[in-house]
Amino acid sequence: MQKELSVIVCTRNRSFHLKEALDSLVNQSVGTSLNWEIIVIDNASEDDTDLVVGRAMKSTGIDMRYILETKIGLSNARNRGLCESIGDIVAFIDDDAIADEKWLEEIMSVYNCENVISAGGKTVALWEISHQKRVDEELFFFAMGYGPQQKDVRTLNGSNMSFRRNVLMGIGGFDANLGRKDKCRLSGDDNDMFDSIHNKMRRSRIIYNPRAIVYHKVLPDRLTREELIKKHYCTGIGLAVVDRKQQLPCLIYRLLRRIKKITLLVVILIIRLMSGKDVMYSDLFYKLQGHKGYFKKLIFGSKVACNKCPIFRNTTYFG
């Protein structure tokens, strides 16, 4: 039987966090008034993920399904969830995120607007350790910069996005060459999907609703210098892969924008150095790692891979 909405949660070895994510979903304000389902894609977990989902399925009146996907990779898991879903709308949330109780209510309200094929909302950092002053939320891509008003945007945060299912199926789903794969932090799968939507469906609308809120955990193991370098370097590589798919005018435009950002970063870097401030392992340092990964991948192509990320073997927490 067709449903109005399918919420897809892709997970791998995070059963503790998954439980909290599922709790936030079964307690949504829409309750059973909406004909919807939850699909958990277990991406070959080695912990008790299956037991956690099993207990959640027994304790809720909302349709919930557990599906094992043995081919490791976030895009593979998302595509499996997409194929298994029966909702007109498919929404994605991370396994280490917690949805506000009105998240789905706000997501679904956007689809009443004309030509909307994708909707998402605000992602707020939920710190697992003390929020140190030097930790910049932009390092985790939570500072979306879309403001307090509902508006048309070009992309959405991967942990807080939804689509009309037929659109994703028509495009062919997520590129399995992109997206995280276990310890590989390669990203760009979300950006690639939104690029495909814009290129193939020019009149379509992607709407950001700031009232559709998801709280995303920033886990301690992501605050080490090694992980921050890896995250930004691999993100740069992923975005380069996405941009290499674009036509020349679009690629040139994106290169110019990136060069402008780098120029600004360098100016700020020089000012900080002249004022005697330490810039090593600062927010500027990590952001420049992203640009480094981007241009290396853009220029050298297949010779540059995420698993060849230059890592400083130091696990001191950022800040």
Give an account of the 3D structure.
With 319 residues, the chain is an alpha/beta fold. It is built from 9 helices and 9 strands. Strands 1, 2, 3, 4, 5, 6, 7, 8 and 9 form a 9-stranded mixed beta sheet that branches. Helix 7 runs parallel beside helix 9. The radius of gyration is 20 Å and the shape is globular. The protein starts with a strand and ends in a 19-residue tail after the last helix.
CATH class descriptor of the largest domain? Alpha Beta
Low-pLDDT residue intervals, each spanning 5 or more residues: 312-319
User: What is the level-2 CATH architecture name of the largest domain?
Assistant: Alpha-Beta Complex
For the largest beta-sheet, the strand count, sense and barrel status come to: 9 strands, mixed
CATH overall fold name of the largest domain: Spore Coat Polysaccharide Biosynthesis Protein SpsA, Chain A
- Percent helix among the residues? 25-40%
CATH level-4 homologous superfamily of the largest domain:
Spore Coat Polysaccharide Biosynthesis Protein SpsA, Chain A
Average of pLDDT: 85
Distance between the termini: 52 Å
Number of helices: 9
Number of strands: 9
Number of domains: 2
Rg estimate, integer Å: 20 Å
Q: Using the alpha-carbon principal axes, give the shape.
A: globular
Spell the H/E element sequence. EHEHEHEEHEEEHHEHHH
Strand content: 15-25%
Structural class from helices and strands?
alpha/beta
Short descriptors:
9-stranded mixed β-sheet; alpha/beta; 9 helices; disordered C terminus; 319 residues; globular
